[in-house]
Every structure is written in structure tokens, then in C-alpha cells.
Amino acid sequence: MIQTETARTAAPALPPELQSPRAKLVYLYLTTKGDATVSEMGDSLGMKKISLYSILKTLKKEGMVACDGDTYALN
């Protein structure tokens, strides 16, 4: 008899202060990707750059993301 094990991957925990669905999406994207430019996020998430800049500004203000040039990553 062959035993199989189902691997369960826990979803990354979202900070409770994230209320916006778009902010949650950006946060989860950075959780899985590691770091990304606004262009990469826009292409992958189907979001406009102007929206992403607004979200990233808020996440940066809250201390959740850091920016190095045009690349963003979680703190």
C-alpha cells in the first residue's frame, strides 16, 4: 500500500490593519514574490500604476513595505 501525504500550505497571515481588498492583494503578491517594481505588480495584478502608487504609499507609511529605487518589498 502506498501512503500519500497531502501537503497543506498555510496562507500568509495578513496584518489586521489591512482593510482594502487591493492593499491585501498587493501585500500577498509581495509576500509570494519577495520584491517587485510597480510595473511588474501592475502587469501581474492587472492594476493601474496610479492605484498601485497610492496603495504602496499607504503601506510604506504604515511601515509594511520598503522601497529601494523603484522596487518594493515587505519589511
Spell out the key features of this protein:
single chain; 75 residues; alpha+beta; Arc Repressor Mutant, subunit A; three-stranded antiparallel β-sheet; 3 strands; globular; Transcription regulator TrmB N-terminal domain-containing protein; WH_DNA-bd_sf
Helix/strand layout:
Elements: H1 21-33, E1 35-37, H2 38-45, H3 49-61, E2 65-68, E3 71-74
In short:
By secondary structure, the protein is of the alpha+beta class. It has three helices and three strands; from the N terminus they run H-E-H-H-E-E.
Architecture overview:
- InterPro entries: WH-like_DNA-bd_sf (IPR036388), WH_DNA-bd_sf (IPR036390).
- The chain is 45% helix and 15% strand.
- It contains 3 helices and 3 strands, in the order αβααββ.
- The chain has a 3-stranded antiparallel β-sheet with strand order 1-3-2.
- Helix 1 (21-33) packs across helix 3.
- What is the level 1 CATH name? Mainly Alpha
- Main sheet: strand order: 1-3-2
Write down the domain tally. Answer: 1
| Percent of residues in beta strands | 5-15%
Strand element count: 3
At the fold tier of CATH, the topology name is Arc Repressor Mutant, subunit A
Query: Could you tell me the radius of gyration in angstroms?
Result: 15 Å
**Contiguous uncertain segments of 5+ residues:** none
Oligomer: single chain
Reported for the largest beta sheet, the result is: 3 strands, antiparallel
Overall shape = globular
Protein name: Transcription regulator TrmB N-terminal domain-containing protein
InterPro entries: WH-like_DNA-bd_sf (IPR036388), WH_DNA-bd_sf (IPR036390)
